[in-house]
Design brief:
By secondary structure, this protein is an alpha+beta fold. It has a single domain, classed as Alpha-Beta Plaits, CATH 3.30.70.20. The chain contains two helices and four strands. The longest helix is centred in the first third of the chain and has 5 residues. The chain is globular and about 30 Å long.
Amino acid sequence: MARIIVDDGFCKGCGLCVDACPVHIIELDRDRITPKGYHPARCVDEARCTGCCSCALMCPDVAITVER
């Protein structure tokens, strides 16, 4: 099992990680806004995360860390 950590200080809510996730478990959190005014990404089902790191590799702001 893997864990996805999104640093809200860097995430600008671009959604590239949402498109990159092969199991579709990342979404933009429409209930939260970062101090910079963005909706950050979040993992909706960590149990299904394969740890492929596609989200982290796609992130242009290096806001995502995947722990295995």
